[in-house]
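Listing S7. Sequence submitted for prediction.
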Amino acid sequence: MTLKNESRYLMNYFQKLIEIFVISTRLGLTSFGGPVAHLSYFHQEYVRRRKWLSEKDYADLVALCQFLPGPASSQVGIGIGVIRAGVIGGFISFLGFTFPSVLALILFALFAQQAGVGDFGFIHGLKIVAVVVVAHAIIGMAQNLTPDVKRKLIALFALLFTLLIPSALAQVGAIFGAAVVGYWLYKGKNVEKSGGELSFPLSKRFGAICLLLFFGLLAGLPIASYLIQSNWLAMIDSFYRAGSLVFGGGHVVLPLLEREFVPTGMISEQDFLAGYGATQAVPGPLFTFAAYIGATISGWSGGVVATIAIFTPAFLLILGCLPFWNVLRQNKKVNAALLGVNAAVVGIIISAFYEPIWTSAILSSVDFAFAAILFSMLVYLKLPPWVIVLTGAIGGTLLAALA
């Protein structure tokens, strides 16, 4: 390549990066409504308007990201950036889509500490909202990931194991145990796979390194946190594990994060729920709730570290699986193990949902009745989550005044 051609190539590459950043930032500022809505915005922008990839390629990329744990819409955005401009393109795409909500939530956390929003009467209403939204997300996840009796039993055993042994190592153990059971139960079965092929500018060696790093951190961080008494390391471990175990959308990460940080006293329940309400009001991925928690615990630097920790699994998984996707989705043994893992995650989430979310929010028959009303508004009337949050806050304030 001549110097002139090399300069032209670099100029075109930088133009691509700038274009990715501008478009993804605009989406990060305007994409309300959760992961399903985000995928619709991405389809409109990247497939229909920009034509960066075909309808089929986009559908295959979405299938891959739904197949992996983590924030599906963020992973799709990363994948589109990788297709367009390699690993750096994936990072720029993620940065643009995520930065607006991260900044907003860090600023809100710093303001909330000064204003003392945890003392306001709407907090209990937000706790009930959390029960409703997470329950709805879990129901949808369970329908997709535990459709038969065998997977329901795997989920049940994971629920019992993590409920009776509430620890980080128990969660990881349940995941690996379920992978073995899933492989044993489903290795000879015909597992549904998607067709078609995708090509990505990543080598299989690079992908293997990312996957090894993902599993190494998932297994190693809890051990390191146990051996080295450090609040920063404990926080990184908690966020990384939460980002590694979540299927079914950002709402499902809530019980995992509450179990990690509220009982330990790193953040109060009032501050936690106030941040959850704020997260519903900003665009972008719901995983940016981690930025609020981190900033509440350790200031703006804690918000940055928490964001990196919770999104790192998503990065490692999407970059690790892209080079192998065409092979992995045709491998019956891999798919069998993942069926068990997906089922176990349902059980782990239900365990975390019960304690502490349900036990701290539903304290009376009135609370249960109010939760039923909010659930009906969300599921049957199809009202957006921010309406549910606002109704919960107002209702909680009224209930407190009448008590």
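Caption to Listing S7: primary sequence and predicted structure tokens for the chain studied. Residues 3-191+203-402 form one domain. Residues 112 and 118 are 8 Å apart (CA to CA).
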